Amino acid sequence: MGVLIEHFAGVFPLWLAPRQVRIVPVGESHIPYAQELRQKLFEKDIRVDVDTSDASLNKKIRNAEKLHINYIVVVGDKEMQDQSVAVRSYRTKKITQLKVNEFLETLLKEIQTKSLDPLL
After folding, report:
1. Of 108, 11, 3, which is closest to residue 69 (Cα–Cα)?
2. Residue of 74, 20, 8 whose CA lies nearest to 48
3. Antiparallel, parallel or unpaired: β 21-25 and 71-75
4. What is the rounded distance in angstroms from the CA atom of residue 49 to the CA atom of residue 72?
5. Among residues 72, 49, 64, which one has the least CA distance to residue 118?
6. How far apart are CA 120 and CA 54, in angstroms?
7. Is residue 1 over pLDDT 90?
8. Could you give the domains of the chain?
9. Residue-wise pLDDT tens digits, 51-76
């Protein structure tokens, strides 16, 4: 295990990470959508949590980055309306707007293929 931790420098590939996704609601009104999304991912065995703290959006994102969480999902009004997610990959720092089903399919593909590189 020590060799794996050192090899990946604590940033594990998605299929090996203890926490794969963190959902960050922009405001309090977005928490129900975040919880609904968490349930969908949890049902597919994705290790996910929701940051419902009182911290600012930037602080929530920074905290998720410090924990080396592979995908940070931000949900706000636009995402609720479109049934989509704004996904930020820890490794690439790229932000992608996806429908929930597309995001879920991408996660499952990355886990099933045991990919070492993020697909997003």
Report:
1. 11
2. 20
3. parallel
4. 10
5. 72
6. 28
7. no
8. 19-112 (3.40.50.800)
9. 999 999 999 999 999 999 999 999 99
Numbers of helices and strands, H then E, in the chain: 5, 5
| Three-class HEC string of 20-35 | CEEEEECCHHHHHHHH
Q: Angle at Cα 19 formed by Cα 65 and Cα 80, nearest 5°? A: 75
- Residue 106, number of CB atoms within 10 A of its CB: 18
Whether 97 and 36 have beta carbons less than 8 Å apart is answered as no
- Does the model's pTM come out above 0.85? yes
Place of tokens 């309090």: 28
> How much of the chain exceeds pLDDT 90, in percent?
87
Q: How many CB atoms lie within 10 A of CB 23?
A: 26
